[in-house]
Design goal:
76 residues; alpha+beta; two-stranded antiparallel ribbon; 4 helices; 2 strands
Amino acid sequence: MEKEIEVNGKKFKIRELLAIELDGMDFSEEKKMDSIKKEVCLSTGISEEEYKLLTIKERLSIIEVINEINGFLKTN
């Protein structure tokens, strides 16, 4: 599944992650931001350099869609 969003005039295509891509990721408090960065880069295909240029609004919007399409957020 893929979803395209537009934030601040920039378009991002976000894809569903494979389970294997998250295997071994460390979501402990010490490593959480590294894991989020990897998750965002894998889902969108952006580079680490492009990631560094994301605004808070852009990153949060991307994370929200990642959570939605990967089933991290359950809505009843």
